[in-house]
Every structure is written in C-alpha cells, then in structure tokens.
Specification:
single chain, 317 residues, alpha+beta, FAD/NAD(P)-binding domain, D-Amino Acid Oxidase, Chain A, domain 2, 9 helices, FAD/NAD-bd_sf, Oleate_hydratase, Myosin-crossreactive antigen
C-alpha cells in the first residue's frame, strides 16, 4: 500500500521529510480547547522545529505494534528489546503527560511477556515447501487461510501468500511467513524456547510438526530465514480502561488527531488494516468537516451463519 500512496502524494506536491523523528508536540490548552502549535523533531543529528500555522493539521501515530523489533537469521537468535527506543512510544508518553485526554500508553507497554511474540519470514529457492503444504492443506497459496498447528507448544502458524508476494520479486524465489504465539515455551521437537532458537531450528520444529521429515535437509539447504522478535506486537490487546486509548480526535482538539492502532474507535477491532483506515477517515473527516461516513463495520456477532459456526465449534468435543 505504501508505494502507490507515496507516489500519489508526491504527484500532488506533498513533501515527505525522511529520516526525521518527531520528538514532541507543543500543545496549548485553554478553556478546554487543545491546539498543537509546534512540531519538535530530530533530523540529521540536529534538533529542529516547525511552527504550525492556523490551518495546519497534525495526525499522530501514537504507539506502534512493531516498535523495537529485533531480527535474527538462519544461525542467529533475535535479542528481545525491553527498553522503549521507538519514537512513536516516546512521543505518545510526552503527549499523555500534557493531558489525560491523550491516553495512557503505560497500559500497553508495561508487560512485554504478555504482548510479545516471534515471527519468521522464509525465502526459498524452489517451491518444495509450497508444494508440500498445498497438498497437505488442500488449499492453493493465496486461496486458503492461515494454517495453525494446534498441538504446537509454540502455537505455530504459517501463511502461504500468492506469489510473487513482493513487488519485483524474482520468479525463481518463493516467500512465506509464520509466527509463534508462545515463544517462551519449549518446542515439541527442538526442546528449546522459540525465543532461543535460530531460524534453522524454527524451521526444523515446523517441518517436524507437519511430518515433512524427509524434506528437511533439502528445505534447509534452499531456504533463508529471518526471525523477528516483536515486544509490542499484541500490545493493543492488553487489559485497559476506556480512557487508556485516546479518542481519534480528543475532546476540544482543534487540529490534532490520533490515527494508530491505539486510538479509540467504538465497536471496531484492532490489529487490522481496516482499523487504521477508519482511524484516518475519522480524523480527516472530523478535522476538515467532510460530510462523509466512515467505512461501515462488519457486525459478525449479528450474522446467523457466524453464530451457528461458533455454536458448532463450542460443541465440537
């Protein structure tokens, strides 16, 4: 999504300042009104500022689920980052100190053991794994859903996307992805926590679960694994009270809005692209007084088919 959006913006004269980190936003609070007056940022090793004009608008990404991600490789484990070095969290903490209407980031980042999990991306030189998993699952790549191994102590899940997955991906390259929700539990075949495993060991654990044992040597020889330890990947699901997430447009805000996974959209579900899109729509339509409706929600809890499937699942055993 990023590349076409950037091209669209540039064609309309938008100037993108790269390599810049917003460190703080000056906000004047008077009589219940909140007005952002200055952006403070760091770029090229220098502290800089932008004074905001009367009609300037500020859209803030407060918090980030992928902040402080560390990476490993085929033979190296990722190191868990426990200090908040990501700029989006530090910016939100400074804003939250100015007004309770700007939320409370501590509710989401104080228990890394509850919000972390590990993912891995595999780049392969042939379609061996795709062929085996398609035959095993009965679904073509890009056509089926996620494949979760429910007996895995790491609760491993893998995804085969339609290829090519990336723009300009070579025709002789296949890319797939997976993750584990419980990285601190010992594996069933590699008897170590996922967080202490190399990419090679994670691949062995997965292939052993799938009973692709005879293919392990070939797949290991033709694959490269990049692991990612993400301390805040499910932070948005942490227990919270209603005011921990700020409203998209905080009460009394004249020109500042939040557009992340950590702003409040009643009835919506975080961890989706749709949530980010609706946050942006709410912010833009509200601050610019655009008379349009935000994209509608899917109310699955009112769908008889969903309720019946849920009932069947509850009575499976």
């Amino acid at each position: 999504m990023v590349r076409p959006i950037v091209a669209w913006l540039k064609a309309r004269g938008v100037r993108l300042e790269m390599g810049a980190e917003v460190t703080d936003i000056d906000v004047v609070i008077e009589g219940g009104q909140k007005t952002a007056t200055r952006l403070r940022y760091r770029q090229g090793g220098e502290d800089r500022a932008i004074d905001l004009a009367e009609r300037d608008l500020v859209f803030v990404t407060n918090g980030s689920m992928t902040s402080d991600t560390s990476y490993g490789s085929m033979d190296r484990i990722p190191v868990l980052n426990t200090e908040r070095t990501g700029g989006s969290w530090r910016l939100w903490e400074r804003l939250a100190a100015k007004s309770p209407d700007f939320g409370r980031p501590a509710a989401f980042v104080s228990k890394i053991d509850h919000s972390k999990w590990e993912s891995f991306t595999v780049t392969a030189d042939d379609s061996s794994f795709f062929d085996r998993l398609e035959a095993f699952s009965g679904s073509r790549a890009g056509k089926g859903g996620l494949v979760t191994i429910k007996d895995s102590s790491w609760l491993l899940t893998v995804v085969l996307n339609r290829q090519p997955h990336f723009y300009e991906q070579p025709k002789n390259v296949w890319v797939w992805w997976g993750y584990g929700l419980f990285p601190d539990k010992p594996g069933n075949f590699v008897h170590k926590p996922m967080s202490e495993c190399t990419g090679r060991e994670i691949l062995i654990e997965l292939l052993s679960h799938l009973r692709f044992t005879e293919s392990i040597p070939h797949i290991l020889d033709t694959s490269r694994v990049i692991t990612a330890m993400m301390p805040y990947i499910t932070a948005q699901f942490m227990p919270r009270v209603r005011t921990d997430r700020p409203k998209v447009i905080p009460d009394g805000s004249c020109n500042l809005a939040f557009i992340s996974q950590f702003c409040e959209i009643p009835d919506d579900v975080v961890f989706t692209v749709e949530y980010s899109v609706r946050a942006a729509q709410t912010a833009v339509f509200g601050l610019l007084d655009v008379q349009r409706s935000v994209s509608p929600f899917y109310k699955g809890e009112h769908d008889p088919r969903v309720l019946f499937d849920a009932w069947k699942t509850l009575h499976r055993y």
